[in-house]
Amino acid sequence: MEYLIMAPVASFIFAITILTSVLAFSNDNLYANMILHPYSVYRRQRVYTVITSGLIHNDWMHLFFNMLSFYFFAFQLEPVLGHWQFGLLYTVSLILSDLPTVYKHKNDEWYHSLGASGAVSAVIFSFIMFDPLSKMMIMPIPIGIPAVLFGALYLVYCNYASRYSHDNINHDAHMFGALSGLIITIALNPYVVHEFIGKISVGVQSLLH
Q1: In the prediction, which pLDDT does 4 show?
Q2: Can you say whether the dihedral through the CA atoms of 33, 34, 38, 42 is positive or negative?
Q3: 0.85 cut: is pTM over it?
Q4: In CATH, 2-208 is 3.40.50.150
Q5: Virtual torsion, Cα 28, 29, 30, 34, nearest 10 deg
Q6: H/E element, 136
Q7: DSSP letters of 6-42?
Q8: Rounded CA gap, 10 and 79, in Å?
Q9: Cβ distance 66 to 115 under 8 Å?
């Protein structure tokens, strides 16, 4: 109940994403109708899938990790960012994170993509803007590192993996989702840049002393 009061939008997104993903696991028609197919979208068919593809996942593990990340950051971010602002951030970032994929694979008839990773990345990077010195974990590093350092390493990795990795992960969505989160957060709260720099400065000074 506390989450519903403090973060109603995040609570709704969390619940509907889990519900829709679970339903799609056992419903092939639902899965096929919601998954992103860049070849079709580029030709102005099934354009709605730039949103619906973020409501389904490939398997339980994919769903678990995305929703775990969402849980840790979204419910802290919404009270700070604002309710409608959080909804705007999530929805717009979900769309923007898919557009580079649509263009990149516009002629790949076999290519499909799904998952909330782009929007979740946006949530994480928006959180970093507000709390750049909070500790985050990167496996296999056994200790938490500052969120701002995590963000920098994340972008470097996503850029590298997008170019050279041959796995089935849509690294473009991760990277452009993160960048969308930064841009939208700054557009909604220009003051956050000054506060971000101030917090980094205080952190650096504390290390030097």
Answers
A1: 78
A2: positive
A3: yes
A4: no
A5: 100
A6: strand 135-136
A7: H-HHHHHHHHHHHHHHHHHHT-HHHHHHHSB-HHHHH
A8: 10
A9: yes
DSSP lists the bridge partners of residue 136 as 145
Classify burial at 87, counting beta carbons within 10 Å of its beta carbon; exposed 0-12, middle 13-18, buried 19 or more.
Answer: middle
Cβ-Cβ contacts under 8 Å for 90 (sequence gap 6 or more): 9, 13, 74, 119, 122, 123
> In which residue are the tokens 């782009």 written?
118
Are the C-beta atoms of residues 6 and 78 closer than 8 Å to each other?
A: yes
CB under 8 Å to 105, separation ≥6 — which residues? 38, 39, 111, 113
141's tokens: 């590093």
DSSP character string of 72-120: HHHHHHHHHH-HHHHHHHHHHHHHHHHHHHHHHTTT-TT--B--SHHHH
Percentages helix, strand, coil for the chain (3-state, rounded to 5) are 75, 5, 25
- Please write the tens of the pLDDT for every residue from 100-118: 999 999 999 999 999 999 9
Mean pLDDT of the chain: 92
Among candidate residues 44, 56, 41, 186, the one with its CA nearest the CA of residue 99: 41
